[in-house]
Design goal:
Layout (H helix, E strand, L loop, with lengths): L1 E9 L4 E11 L2 E12 L1 H18 L8 E5 L2 H16 L13 H12 L3 E5 L7 H15 L3
Parallel strand pairs: 1-4, 4-5
Antiparallel strand pairs: 1-2, 2-3
Length: 147
């Protein structure tokens, strides 16, 4: 079983942003983070999950194992588990007939999720969850690189 905590954020929206994940499997942890000078919070939340699932796909020791993604982003969790089905069916339009924001991120995330056995869990941010807090700290360090 693979458990991945993810987080993303930015200072200002848009502004300098960061993403991070902590992946736990078989008693070991993989931590990665990155950022952009000018981005949005939602792009960074999506980037955290995308990069974590890319790690699963490219790491042969992790291949074939079920994955639980733990996120504090309702946007990501609801987007990939519920909203995306209608977006695809409606030609990447929202229920208000507007183009889906961050479409390229959603397409990449959907392809990764479709290739893996992924379940989703939401956790409240800034609530003392150790690995969520660690991701948040890593995100802050990434944002600091652009200030």
């Amino acid at each position: 079983m693979i458990e991945i905590y993810t987080d993303g954020g930015c200072s200002g929206n848009p502004g300098p942003g960061g993403w991070a994940f902590v992946l736990s499997a078989d008693g070991r942890r993989i931590k990665k983070s990155g950022g952009e000078a000018h981005t949005t919070n939602n792009k960074m939340e999506l980037s955290a999950v995308i990069n974590s699932l890319k790690e699963v796909n490219t790491n042969s020791a992790l291949a074939g194992n079920p994955v639980t993604v733990v996120t504090d982003s309702q946007y990501v969790k609801n987007g990939i588990t519920a909203w995306i089905h209608n977006w695809v069916k409606n030609g990447w339009k929202t229920s208000a007939k507007q183009p889906v924001k961050n479409k390229e991120y959603w397409i990449e995330l959907k392809a990764l999720v479709d290739s893996l056995d992924v379940s989703w869990r939401w956790v409240k941010g800034h609530s003392g969850n150790e690995l969520n807090e660690e991701c948040d700290t890593m995100v802050g360090l990434e944002m600091d690189k652009f200030r």
